[in-house]
Design a protein that fits this description.
The complex is a heterotrimer. Helices cover 48% and strands 14% of the residues of chain A. Chain A is of the alpha/beta class. In chain A, strands 7, 8, 9, 10, 11 and 13 form a 6-stranded mixed sheet that branches. A 3-stranded antiparallel sheet of chain A has the order 3-12-6, covered by helices on one side. A two-stranded antiparallel sheet of chain B has the order 1-2. The longest helix of chain B is centred in the first third of the chain and has 32 residues, at 62-93. Classes of the chains: A alpha/beta, B mainly alpha, C mainly alpha. Chains in contact: A-B, A-C, B-C. At the B-C interface, α1, α2, α4, α5 and α6 of B face α1, α4, α5, α6 and α7 of C.
Chain lengths: 429, 292, 273
């Protein structure tokens, strides 16, 4: 009796499954003769709704203008996207258009001939549209392999209300920062939200300290091998990191907290400061899910100078994700057109609709933007230098060493000297 | 009888489908992993054959041995915790009221995915807003231990959610096995005047030894290749304090461009698991088969 | 004295139960709280109002399709796995042949492979037979990867199965097939149900394979679909709680259903023994 039940259940499920899989024609070229562009991106509807919606609109517009092309989309969240890219590239199955990061991430793909060069687009439709310096990060040996969509700079965001309550002001120098930290700590307020489980968050702090103490040259020359990572400025920056740790600047258990958890603390007024890049701007300006009161009380200040040194107009930041075209794509022409179209439309819509800064030039005046935006755009326009995030600049292997070392440094398991030495060794390989 | 029971064709029909499936979907990837370990490959460009270099490097890699040590510690904890599960199952199986309900409750944590469990326990361990810190605060503790960021306790902190997750599973298996013991045997022993403890140790335990051996292997193999929960909770950190072999392998293969080396580590993980299993089997070899 | 012992016993069992279930209750409670309560108030406080809107937020993302995929993929894979595993376990333990131990060893090796190693080889394989983005690739992968553990669970049971029943059946002139399907299988219901539960849990919560082999939204399962939501709500613990509860509820219901079967089976076989 039971067997009969099991059999009918099995038969039923099989039937359903057969019907369903019979409908899986997705891997064949579209039957109505259209060309298909496979596009993969990392802005899922749940976690990045605004981005996702813009992409949907762009695709619809593109298909309207190019009636003979269809765009098939696959969406993954960040970590899953990276994993899948690895598997796809190993099997030679990269999508026609996809997203990539610059510098270190891009290199193997460029050198391995997986990405197509996009210089023709830069000389054509997209001439002069990009903020200077952004496409350079996507170049290998002088050829461009990706076009950036985002541009970010990191600043220290702070809760003005908490500051006022405790009688402190936004610091302009490192010494002032330490005093702010000490005052807040004495009053039982967590000074800085930091989620260093993710490691790149701590890296931001280190990079800014290195930039202020050693100038823009120090870090960059260590990385491009014209200098050494054991440069005293870089060691000194590492020392300052540990000074901050000793002063209880960061929230309890920071080395085990994710960036999101740290962010929650800042957004729920449990910490006074948070060093993060402009991709977070919507949370402090336009995001309706965040209480208005909080948004009104957030401001930002540039990273302080250290011991009188440091150019306040020098930023850590850089281009975020960009688009690539697969070299082995059989719809390369159409794919490139899509990329060009996308970049332009994205440039127009991303600021107003998603609240992020694109890598293409933005005319801040003509758009109706919240004040913080305008301030940030001003900073961007007057920036003297943007140092690309270390973990993006470095090749994958060295980036991993860097990130691990950052966690060790913050956790006081490595001395500043060891920190520098390990980097130097990794870079010399 | 034995003619029927050794009919080659029947045996083939019964065994081949399963064998075929695992050969294609498990063994081939397994062998390929070992093969990729022989290459210098970043997962993107062409592969370059370098023989056993990766394997030799791995054996000299202190990070690898640290991760192996952590995996072994985890495996030991898991095996030891089986004793707790067995005890609970023994108690449950001996006519306790509400045993069924309790059994179900114990299994509930297992229903959550490892990722969900990791997310949940991250919040439990949260220094500012988690349950543990709050409870310890009631007992007057000034600052709760930093469960996930203190390198000396993070591995132990991770063990609790794992214990929590698998308790129900093993209790369920032991319970089913215990319930299979014919009542008549237990009754006979009781009549002979055996105490519950004696019954448990001298009758029940030996009769379910087969199942216990299986669970030991499952627990150890499972913890040696454990990945999901640890990766989400700590990412192997801080500073590698909770890195296990599987997370180290993943890091190498997917986060750096060292896919070849990562594969070598993966293959070594497999070999270590194999060796450990063989050792366990030797140690627990049953000298006689128990017949009814 | 024995009374005290029993009381202590019950208390300890109850404590274990509390330990097992409390975190989940906590999860449920904070899925109904607002962020201010979670971060401002005590973790133990009951929610001031029950914010069911946390659940609405998650549901509106269109989970229905993912649910359906999870259900059928899990179901078919379970049936295949349990069927193939019990046949193989039966043959290995009850039938007499030279290579039974070897084959058993092979299955045990199958337990040991770290999943991530298999991703690229499997992907390539499926690519070559055009099974990428086809849910059947997931079904057979789950079946294969669950065979070892299912077999291990069934093995213990089949080893201690009384010979008399087989002997009686054969004397009665029954074929092996008949004996297996009509007698042994039904009698192994409790252990089969246990195996079903274990398989169900694994398949329902599985993520990596689906993420790698499936690209189209229409074939994605619940776990992958849910991943897309976790991102945004990272700072909104209430919604994370709601997401986790929603994805685990169906499993809970199925579990309650199946474990009742385990009990039915156990009580009937205990009588027989």
């Amino acid at each position: 009796m039971l067997r009969k039940k099991a059999f009918s259940l099995l038969a039923g499920l099989f039937a359903v499954a057969l019907v369903l899989s019979g409908c899986s024609g997705s891997e064949d070229a579209s039957s109505d003769g259209k060309k298909v562009i496979k596009f993969m991106h990392l802005w899922p509807e749940g976690s990045s709704k605004k981005h996702h919606d813009i992409v949907e609109n762009i695709i619809t517009d593109f298909e309207k203008e190019h009636k003979d092309v269809k765009v098939e989309v696959e969406v993954l969240s960040n970590e899953q996207y990276k994993d899948k890219m690895k598997v796809l590239s190993a099997s030679g199955e990269l999508p026609d258009v996809g997203m990539t990061w610059s510098a270190g991430y891009l290199e193997p793909y460029a050198n391995g001939g997986k990405f197509a060069t996009l210089d023709d687009l830069l000389e054509g439709d997209l001439k002069d549209s990009f903020v200077s310096g952004t496409t350079e990060a996507y170049q290998v040996d002088g050829k461009t392999y990706g076009l950036p969509l985002e541009l970010n700079i990191a600043s220290v965001y702070y809760n003005k209300a908490i500051f006022k309550e405790n009688g402190v002001e936004a610091p302009k120098t490192y010494d002032e920062l330490i005093k702010v930290v000490e005052t807040l700590d004495k009053k039982g307020v967590e000074p800085i939200a930091l989620g260093n489980k993710d490691k790149w968050t701590g890296s931001l702090w280190y990079m800014y300290l290195a930039d202020r103490i050693g100038g823009t040259k120090a870090l960059n020359s260590a990385i491009d091998r014209s200098g050494s990572f054991e440069d005293p400025a870089l060691v000194s920056a590492a020392e300052k990191v540990q000074e901050l740790v000793d002063a209880n600047a960061f929230v309890d258990g920071f080395n085990g907290l994710s960036d999101e958890e740290a962010k929650s603390m800042f957004m729920n007024e449990q910490a006074a400061m948070y060093l993060i890049a402009t991709w977070d701007l919507p949370n402090y300006t336009t995001n309706e899910d965040v209480p208005q009161e909080f948004r009104d009380s957030v401001g930002f200040f540039d990273f302080p100078s250290v011991d009188g040194k440091g150019d306040m107009n020098s930023y850590v930041g850089g281009p975020g994700v960009g688009l690539f075209v697969s070299e082995s794509s059989d719809v390369k022409e159409e794919a490139k057109e899509f990329v060009s179209f996308f970049t332009q439309e994205w440039g127009e819509k991303s600021v107003t609709d998603a609240g992020v800064i694109p890598a293409t030039k933005v005319d801040g005046e003509s758009l109706d933007l919240p004040q913080m935006y305008v301030d940030v755009l001003d900073k961007l326009n007057s920036a003297t230098n943007i140092t690309l995030y270390a973990d993006v600049q470095l090749s994958a292997d060295v980036a991993q060493v860097h990130l691990d070392q950052i966690q060790a440094l913050f956790g006081k398991e490595a001395t500043p000297e060891d920190f520098a030495k390990t980097h130097e060794q990794a870079l010399s390989k | 009888m034995s003619k029927v029971m050794s009919n080659k064709w029947i045996i083939a029909i019964y065994v081949l489908p399963a064998l075929l499936l695992i050969s294609i979907l498990i063994f081939i990837p397994l062998l390929l992993t070992g093969y990729y370990g022989l290459m210098d490959w970043d997962g993107v460009s062409a592969m370059e054959f370098i023989g056993l270099e990766n394997y030799i490097t791995a054996l000299q890699d202190s990070l690898f041995w640290d991760s192996a040590w952590h995996s072994v510690l985890l495996a030991l904890f898991s095996a030891l915790s089986l004793a707790i599960y067995l005890t609970i199952a023994l108690i449950l199986a001996s006519k306790i009221k509400g045993a069924n309900l309790l059994r179900k409750i114990y299994l509930i944590p297992m229903l959550l995915s490892s990722v969900a469990i990791a997310q949940l326990w991250i919040k439990v361990y949260n220094p500012s807003n988690g349950i543990l810190s709050t409870v310890l605060g009631w007992f007057g503790a000034e600052k709760a231990p930093l469960w996930l960021s203190d390198t000396s306790i993070v591995l132990y902190a991770i063990f609790i959610p794992i214990l929590w997750q698998y308790a129900g599973f093993y209790i369920l298996i032991y319970y089913a096995a215990l319930k299979n013991i014919p009542e008549s045997l237990i009754e006979a022993a009781k009549i002979d005047g055996a105490t519950p403890l004696q019954i448990a140790l001298k009758i029940k335990l030996p009769l379910i030894m087969g199942v216990v051996k299986v669970t030991i292997v499952l627990a150890i193999v499972g913890s040696l290749k454990y990945f999901d929960l640890i990766y989400v909770m700590t990412g192997g950190g801080p500073n590698g304090a909770s890195e296990v072999m599987a997370s180290y392998m993943y890091k190498l293969a997917f986060s750096t461009s060292n896919f070849g080396y990562g594969s070598a580590i993966g293959f070594l993980l497999l070999l270590i698991t194999l060796i450990v299993t063989l050792v366990i089997n030797k140690l627990t070899a049953s000298k006689d088969k128990i017949q009814y | 004295m024995a009374r005290l012992g029993k009381l202590l016993l019950y208390i300890s069992l109850a404590l274990v139960a509390v330990f097992q279930i409390f975190p989940i209750i906590w999860l449920f409670l904070f899925s109904l709280k607002s962020n201010q309560e979670i971060f401002g108030g005590s973790p133990f406080a009951l929610p001031a109002e029950f914010r069911w809107e946390n659940y609405l937020k998650v549901w509106e993302g269109g989970i229905g399709l993912y649910f359906f995929n999870s259900i059928w993929i899990t179901g078919v894979a379970i049936i295949l796995t349990v069927l193939l595993a019990s046949m193989a376990a039966f043959a290995i333990t009850r039938m007499q042949w030279k290579y039974s131990k070897l084959v058993l060893g092979l299955f045990m090796i199958g337990l040991m492979i770290p999943i991530h190693s298999a991703l690229i080889p499997l992907f390539n394989m499926f690519l070559n037979v055009n099974l990428i983005d086809n849910p059947w690739s997931i079904v057979i992968t789950y079946t294969a990867y669950n065979l070892p553990i299912t077999m291990m669970i069934l093995l213990g049971f089949y080893t201690t199965f009384p010979r008399e029943i087989e002997e009686a059946a054969i004397i009665d002139g029954s074929s092996v097939h008949r004996m297996f399907f009509r007698i042994i299988l039904p009698m192994s219901m409790p252990i089969l149900s246990t195996a079903v539960i274990i398989n169900m849990i694994y398949n329902w919560n599985e993520f990596v394979f689906v993420n790698t082999f499936i690209s189209s939204d229409q074939y994605k399962t619940l776990t992958v679909g849910i991943q897309n939501f976790i991102g945004q709500y990272m700072t909104d613990w209430g919604a994370i709680g709601a997401t986790l509860i929603i994805s685990f509820l169906p499993l809970l219901l199925a579990f309650i259903f199946f474990s009742n079967k385990v009990i039915e089976g156990l009580s009937s076989s205990a009588v027989k023994g």
